[in-house]
Amino acid sequence: MEASTLSRIGLAGLAVMGQNLALNIGEKGFPISVYNRTTSKVDETVDRARKEGGLPLFGQYNPRDFILSLERPRSVIILVKAGAPVDQTIASLSEHMESGDCIIDGGNEWYENTERRIREVSDKGILYLGMGVSGGEEGARNGPSLMPGGSYQAYSNVQDILMKVAAQVEDGPCATYIGEGGSGNFVKMVHNGIEYGDMQLISEAYDVLKHVGGLSNSELSEIFGEWNSGELESFLIEITADIFKVKDEAGDGDLVDKILDKTGMKGTGKWTVQQAAELSVAAPTIAASLDCRYLSGLKEERENAATVLKEAGLNDEVGFVKSGIDKKRLIDDVRQALYASKICSYAQGMNLLRAKSDEKGWNLNLGELARIWKGGCIIRAVFLDRIKRLIREIPTWLV
Which domain of life, per UniProt (predicted)? Predict the structure, then answer.
């Protein structure tokens, strides 16, 4: 192919995250080739690129044509399910790659798998990055937080792209080179552990306000909205306020009251707690949030226990509201408790990152991590700016 027709970068794996990240890259002016084993996904992505502004996105239908459509040194992002599918994708693509080309895994991968793959592809002279991508499908399309770790040369080859597609905050793009080896995946793992803690804290604040304070969903929406204009301003607080407003389109009432109190997980929270234990780092907020997810999965057992307790005379709808609760004071107490607890959750995550950095010699810049989490990602929060300044001003505050 003529050099002028080659794409600047490629992306393999066109599920929701892959499609949206590819469109984001194309929208920023970088010609991109896309590939997926299911050809209909390629067609779907190409069609979206056409409808969303005629973006410079080009579909390829086999690994060879996909790789040959890229400028040298070639850089390929893969967004497929962690584990064996990543190894299979690497095998099919690397067969057509050359020394100096780069593979960037953007999935939630265990960091030791990334370090193994770095060693394996180095035999062919191929460079490798394990890149955490946070922000969900909306972030992927409009600006995620990016955490690439591994080969610095590979990062340099795509730095201009990453800086453009990442979320933008007042002090720069939410992307930075994390460090060597599997550091990018490890940082994303801890990010997700902090997210576990954050969501559990919000759910407990909701529970107290709902069942102790007797507040309605409309009142809860207003309260969380007010909190989001202060020190608790964050993505999760913002969407919590919005959730209380959603009506059940298939019936009467609010949707939040119809949601099953049972959840699953993908593993990153468990890995975070395991690593904290192995490194002797206390992470009680994150660990408690993991325990609560396990408990939520025991739906049948919890229902049976509720029946037994009710028969024993314990009422699950204790008359707290009529007992003279000062709602205004309760709301402020919960706000302050939530803020203090969120700080603890983030500090636990930072302590874990510091400990792992010391063990592996990654030399992680914790202040820079706080900065790139200020936009795009799920745990973005205004007080991360205060954490960033604190780390930079007093670098020994984490002990």
Answer: Eukaryota
User: Can you tell me the distance from the alpha carbon of 73 to that of 84, in angstroms, rounded to the nearest whole number?
Assistant: 26
Is 195 among the catalytic positions? Answer: yes
Q: Which of 195, 342, 356, 388 is catalytic?
A: 195
Neighbours of 180 (CB within 10 A): 17
Instruction: Tell me the per-residue pLDDT of 53-110, one tens digit each, with 9 for 90 and over.
Output: 999 999 999 999 999 999 999 999 999 998 999 999 999 999 999 999 999 999 989 9
Give the side-chain half-sphere CA count within 13 A for 139: 22
Give the confidence band of 315 by pLDDT, cuts at 50, 70, 90.
low
Asked if 342 is an active-site residue, the reply is: no
Tokens describing residue 27: 């929208």
Q: How far is CA 103 from CA 10, 144, 379, 398, in A?
A: 10, 19, 27, 34
Q: Which residue has the higher pLDDT, 21 or 302?
A: 21
Write the burial class of residue 164 (CB in 10 Å: 0-12 exposed, 13-18 middle, 19+ buried): middle
